[in-house]
Design goal:
CATH topology of the largest domain in chain B: Rossmann fold
Order of helices and strands of chain C: HEEHHHHHHHHHH
Number of domains of chain B: 2
Number of strands of chain B: 20
Radius of gyration of chain C: 23 Å
CATH superfamily of chain C: MetI-like
CATH superfamily of the largest domain in chain B: P-loop containing nucleotide triphosphate hydrolases
Strand content of chain B: 25-35%
Chains: A mainly alpha (about 270), B alpha+beta (about 350), C mainly alpha (about 270)
Number of helices of chain B: 8
Number of domains of chain C: 1
Structural class of chain B: alpha+beta
Distance between the termini of chain B: 44 Å
Shape of chain B: elongated
CATH architecture of chain C: Orthogonal Bundle
Distance between the termini of chain C: 48 Å
Order of helices and strands of chain B: EEEHEEEHHHEHEHEEHHEEEEEEEEEE
CATH topology of chain C: MetI-like fold
Strand order of the largest sheet of chain C: 1-2
Structural class of chain C: mainly alpha
CATH architecture of the largest domain in chain B: 3-Layer(aba) Sandwich
Number of strands of chain C: 2
Oligomer: heterotrimer
Chain lengths: ~270, ~350, ~270
C-alpha cells in the first residue's frame, strides 16, 4: 500500500460519515425550509411574521442579557481567583468549574429547585418579605439557567487568559504612576479583550440555540428553539421548523465564526 | 558491519512544487561507495530538497532518476529504499525507549529478537551510550539524542545514510566534539553518506567531497581543499571560509591596486579581474620594501591570532589574519605580501 | 485597609457565585435521598427513590452507556485516522474539511436533529433503532475527537516522526500503528473523555431522535422531571451526577496535566 492510498483510506470514513449524516441532511433542511406554503419566502417570515419576530427578539435579548451578565460575573471572579492566593482557593475554583458539562435539562431542574414553586428562593423570600418569589418558569428562570451554564466555562477562559498576562506590563504601568483603576482599564481589560469577545460569543450562540433548559422549565417560553420544536412536533409545520432552524443555525455559526476571528478558542456549545 | 553502502547516482533531478516554485534545477551527482558527500549551502538553496529526493520523501520532476548501485529506485517509496536517515530534530519515537528506538528498523524487517538485541548492543557500544538503553527519550540530553538517532539510522545497515543538519540543534562546544565522533564513525562504518549542512566548518571536517549549492543549483563540487583553495566562483569563495574579494586590473603578471601591486601566478588573465585572497594568506611586512602598502584601520584580538582591517591598499578594506607576535595599532602604515599561489583569480563576474 | 475591604468584597461575591452553582446541585442530591422533600431532611434519609429510579430507568441508563461507548468506538475509528490524514495533507482542501466537520459545534443540536429526521426519518427500521441516535451522536462528537488529536499533532513535528519511521522501512499502516497512534495517545484519551462525558448528558439531539423504545439517560431525566414526583426526579439526577462527576473531574485533572508538554524537548 502506498502512502497516498493510505492517506485516502484514512480520510474515506470521515468523508462518508460527514457527507451522509451531516452535509446531505443539512442541505435537505435548507431545501425543505423553502418548500412550505410560502416557498423561499419562509426564510423572510422569520423577521416579518410578528410571532416569529417576537420570538427572535426575545431570544436575542435573552442571549444578550446572559452574555453581558456572565462576562461581568466571570471577569470579577476569574480575575480574583487568578490573582489572589488564599486558603480554600482551589476548592472554590473546583466548585465554580464543576458544572462545566451539565446538560441543559439537568440545569433546568436545578433552577426549578432553586427558584421554582417549592424552591429555595421562594422559601427565603417568604421568610423575608412575606411573599413567595417564583422565577423558574419564565424568561427569568431561563436567564438563571443560562447563567448557570455559562459561568463555569467563561471563568475558566478568563482565568487562563489572566494567567498569560505579562506581569511586567502592570509593573511598568505602576512605575509610570498608574493606580489600580487605571491599570485595570488600560492594561488588564484590553489584554483580556480577545478572551472576553471569544467566550462572550460562545455564551451568546449557546444561549440562542439551547433547548434542554427551556424544555424542562416550561413549554410556553417562546424562545426560538422552543418555537422550532413546537412547530415541528405539535403543529407539524415542517417547512417552517426547517426554515427557522436554518436561520438559527446561521446566526449561531456567524457569531462563533466572528469569535474565532478574534483568536478565541471555541468551546462546546451544548445547551 | 562496514562497507555495505552502494554507489549513489542522481541524474537530472529537479523539483518544482505544486505551487510552481522551483526548489531545485535538474542536478546530476555521483557519490562513490562509502564516500561522504556534504551538501552545503545557505537555507533555501535546495540541499534539503535534494536529500529528500534521494531519500524518497519527494519525487523528482519527470526525467529525474535516482540510482542506488545498479538499481533505479526513483519510483520506490522510502520504506523500501533501505536508507538510514537522521533529521535535525532527531525525531526519536517518544513512545519507545532508547533500545526500542534503535531496534525499530530491525523489528520492522522481522529480525529475530536475539539478533536484534545483539545488534542494538553493538550500536550502543559503538555510539558510546551504554547504560541508557532503558531510558525514555525525554530523559536524554541533546548529545545523547543525536547518538541514538544515528545508531537507529545505521542499525538497519542502510545502502545510503542521509543526515539532515544532525548537529545544528546542539550548542557550539558539543557540536565540535560530536563532529569529531561522527567523522570517526562514518570512516569506521564506510557507508555511503549524504550530509546536509549550512555550516562550512562541518562540511570541511566531514566531507570527502563538498557539493556547494545555491538557489536550487550546484555551484561547485570538489574536495574540501579544492573548494576552499580553488573556488570556481565568487559565491563559493565567499560562502566557504572568509575571503577578500578584490577587484583589480591584471596585466598577466601583477595585479594593479591603489596601494601598489601584487604578483600573481596565473599569467593567462589580462584586464579586469576578481582576486580571492584568504585572510590568513596575507602577511604583514615592513612597509619600506613592500610592493603593496596599506593603513591599519583596526585590530581585533581573536585568541590564537589577530584580525587586522587594512584600508588604502585596495579599493575596499582588506581583512588579514596575522600572528599575535606582530605589534600593530590603528593608523600604522604596513606592507602586505601574498604568495602568488595563494591568489585565486575568479573568472568574469559569476556572482 | 482599603485593599482588605476590596479583597473581602471580591471573595464574598465569588462565594455567592459558587453558592449559586453548588447549592441547587446539593439540593437535588439531598432531595434524592430524602424521604419526603416537602418535610425536608427531617423526614429521614432513604435509598428507596434511587431504587425506584433503577427499576424505572435502568434500561435507559444502560442504553446511554451502550450508545456512548459505541459512538466513542465510531469516533475513534473514523476520527483518529482522519486527524492524521488532515494534518499530514495540511492543504486548503483539508482545512475546508476541518471547517465542515467543526460546523456541528456551531449549529444547535435541534437543527441537526431536524435535518437527520427529515432525511432519514422515512427509513423505518433505521429510524426506530438506537443506531439513529448513534448517528446523531457521531456527527456531534466527531469534531471533538478530530480536534483533540490534531492538537497533539500540531504541537510537534509528527510529520518528521512519520518520515523517520518510513526511512526505517515501516509501511504506512505500520507507521500509523507503531508511531502515530502511540504518539497521539494523550489527545485520544482527552478526546474520549470529552466524547463520553458529552454523550452521557446529550439531550438536544437525542430528544428529537429517540423513540419510546430508544430512550437514553437524559431523555429519561426530562421524562422524570415532567411526570414523576420530585424525589424520584432528584434521585435520578443524583444517579446522573454520580456517573458524570468523576468524568468531569478526570477531564479537569487531565487538562491540568496536559499543560506540562509531554512531547520531546527541543
Amino acid at each position: 500500500m502506498t502512502k497516498p492510498t493510505f492517506m485516502r483510506l484514512c480520510l474515506l470514513p470521515l468523508a462518508v460519515v460527514v457527507a451522509a449524516f451531516f452535509v446531505l441532511p443539512m442541505a435537505r433542511l435548507v431545501l425543505i425550509g423553502a418548500t412550505g406554503r410560502h416557498g423561499i419566502a419562509a426564510y423572510a417570515a422569520i423577521v416579518i411574521e410578528p410571532r416569529y419576530a417576537a420570538s427572535l427578539l426575545d431570544t436575542v435579548l435573552l442571549a444578550l442579557a446572559t452574555t453581558v451578565t456572565t462576562l461581568l460575573i466571570a471577569t470579577v471572579s476569574g480575575l480574583f481567583l487568578q490573582r489572589r492566593r488564599f486558603p480554600g482557593r482551589a476548592l472554590l475554583v473546583a466548585m465554580l468549574t464543576l458544572p462545566l458539562a451539565f446538560p441543559g435539562v439537568v440545569i433546568g431542574f436545578l433552577i426549578i429547585l432553586l427558584a421554582g414553586r417549592q424552591g429555595l428562593l421562594g422559601d427565603v423570600t417568604l421568610a423575608l418579605f412575606g411573599h413567595k418569589e417564583v422565577l423558574a418558569y419564565s424568561l427569568a428562570g431561563l436567564f438563571l439557567g443560562y447563567l448557570y451554564f455559562s459561568i463555569p466555562r467563561v471563568i475558566l477562559t478568563i482565568m487562563a487568559a489572566a494567567e498569560k498576562l505579562d506581569p511586567s506590563l502592570e509593573e511598568a504601568a505602576r512605575t509610570l504612576g498608574a493606580g489600580a483603576w487605571a491599570i485595570h482599564r488600560d492594561i488588564i481589560l484590553p489584554a483580556l479583550a480577545p478572551a472576553l469577545i471569544a467566550s462572550g460569543a460562545i455564551v451568546f450562540a449557546t444561549a440562542m440555540g439551547a433547548f434542554g433548559t427551556a424544555f424542562t422549565l416550561a413549554t410556553d417560553i417562546d424562545v426560538l428553539p422552543m418555537l422550532i420544536y413546537t412547530e415541528f412536533t405539535l403543529s407539524a409545520n415542517i417547512a417552517t421548523a426547517a426554515a427557522l432552524s436554518v436561520g438559527l443555525g446561521l446566526v449561531t455559526w456567524a457569531i462563533l465564526a466572528l469569535a474565532r476571528i478574534y483568536g478565541g478558542n471555541t468551546v462546546a456549545a451544548n445547551g | 558491519m562496514s562497507g555495505h553502502g552502494v554507489a549513489l547516482r542522481v541524474v537530472a533531478c529537479g523539483k518544482t512544487f505544486a505551487d510552481g516554485t522551483r526548489a531545485l534545477a535538474p542536478v546530476t551527482l555521483d557519490v562513490g561507495r562509502g564516500e561522504t558527500a556534504v551538501l552545503l549551502g545557505p537555507s533555501g538553496c535546495g540541499k534539503t530538497t535534494l536529500l529528500r529526493i534521494i531519500a524518497g520523501l519527494e519525487t523528482p520532476d519527470p526525467g529525474g532518476r535516482v540510482l542506488f548501485g545498479d538499481s533505479d529506485v526513483t519510483g520506490v517509496p522510502i520504506e523500501r529504499r533501505n536508507v538510514g536517515m537522521v533529521f535535525q530534530s532527531y525525531a526519536l519515537f517518544p513512545n519507545m525507549n532508547v533500545a526500542d528506538n534503535i531496534g525499530y528498523g530491525l523489528k520492522v524487517r522481522g529480525v529475530g529478537e536475539a539478533e536484534r538485541k545483539a545488534r542494538v548492543a553493538a550500536l550502543v557500544a559503538l555510539t558510546g551510550i551504554e547504560g541508557l538503553e532503558r531510558r525514555r527519550i525525554d530523559q536524554l540530553s541533546g548529545g545523547q539524542r543525536q547518538r541514538v538517532a544515528l545508531a537507529r539510522a545505521v542499525a538497519v545497515q542502510p545502502s545510503v545514510l542521509l543526515l539532515d543538519e544532525p548537529l545544528t540543534a546542539l550548542d557550539a562546544a558539543l557540536r565540535e566534539r560530536l563532529r569529531g565522533e561522527l567523522n570517526r564513525l562514518l570512516r569506521t562504518l564506510g557507508i555511503t553518506t549524504i550530509y546536509v549542512t549550512h555550516d562550512q566548518a562541518e562540511a570541511m571536517a566531514l566531507g570527502d567531497r563538498i557539493v556547494v549549492m545555491r538557489e536550487g543549483a550546484i555551484a561547485q563540487i570538489g574536495t574540501p581543499r579544492a573548494v576552499y583553495f580553488a573556488p570556481e566562483n565568487r559565491f563559493v569563495a565567499e560562502f566557504v571560509g572568509a575571503a577578500n574579494l578584490i577587484e583589480a586590473a591584471c596585466n598577466g603578471a601583477t595585479l594593479a591596486l591603489p596601494g601598489g601591486t601584487l604578483p600573481v601566478a596565473d599569467g593567462a588573465l589580462h584586464g579586469p579581474a576578481t582576486a580571492m585572497i584568504r585572510p590568513e594568506a596575507i602577511k604583514i611586512v615592513p612597509a619600506e620594501n613592500a610592493s603593496l602598502i596599506g593603513l591599519v584601520d583596526s585590530v581585533s584580538f581573536l585568541g590564537d591570532r589577530q584580525r587586522v582591517l587594512i584600508s588604502a591598499a585596495a579599493t575596499k578594506v582588506i581583512t588579514a589574519d596575522v600572528p599575535n607576535a606582530i605589534a600593530l595599532a590603528a593608523g600604522d602604515r604596513v606592507g602586505l605580501s601574498v604568495e602568488p599561489a595563494a591568489i585565486r583569480l575568479l573568472p568574469g563576474d559569476t556572482t | 485597609m482599603r485593599a482588605r475591604a476590596i479583597f473581602v468584597a471580591q471573595l464574598t461575591f465569588t462565594l455567592l457565585v459558587a453558592a449559586f452553582l453548588i447549592v441547587p446541585a446539593l439540593q437535588s442530591m439531598l432531595a434524592g435521598v430524602t424521604a419526603n422533600y416537602f418535610r425536608g431532611i427531617r423526614s429521614g434519609v432513604t435509598l428507596q427513590w434511587v431504587l425506584q429510579v433503577w427499576q424505572l430507568y435502568a434500561d435507559t441508563i444502560l442504553r446511554s452507556f451502550v450508545i456512548a461507548f459505541a459512538t466513542l468506538g465510531v469516533t475513534l475509528v473514523v476520527g483518529v485516522p482522519a486527524a492524521y490524514g488532515l494534518h499530514l495533507r495540511g492543504d486548503r482542501l483539508s482545512r475546508a474539511v476541518e471547517e465542515i466537520i467543526t460546523l456541528p459545534l456551531a449549529i444547535p443540536g435541534l437543527a441537526i436533529a431536524l435535518a437527520l429526521l427529515l432525511t432519514y426519518g422515512g427509513l423505518g427500521s433505521f429510524r426506530r433503532s438506537w443506531l439513529f441516535i448513534l448517528v446523531g451522536h457521531v456527527v456531534f462528537t466527531l469534531p471533538f475527537m478530530v480536534r483533540s488529536v490534531m492538537a497533539i499533532f500540531a504541537a510537534t513535528d509528527v510529520k518528521t516522526l512519520d518520515e523517520t519511521a518510513a526511512s526505517l522501512g515501516a509501511s504506512p499502516l505500520r507507521r500509523f500503528r507503531d508511531v502515530i497512534v502511540p504518539y497521539a495517545r494523550p489527545g485520544i484519551l482527552a478526546g474520549s473523555l470529552m466524547v463520553v462525558t458529552l454523550l452521557l448528558g446529550e439531550f438536544n439531539l437525542t430528544w428529537m431522535l429517540h423513540t419510546p423504545l430508544t430512550k437514553t439517560l437524559p431523555v429519561g431525566l426530562a421524562d422524570s422531571y415532567a411526570s414523576m414526583r420530585l424525589e424520584i426526579a432528584s434521585a435520578y439526577t443524583l444517579v446522573f451526577f454520580v456517573m458524570i462527576i468523576p468524568l468531569l473531574v478526570a477531564m479537569q485533572i487531565f487538562a491540568g496535566c496536559r499543560n506540562e508538554p509531554a512531547g520531546p524537548r527541543r
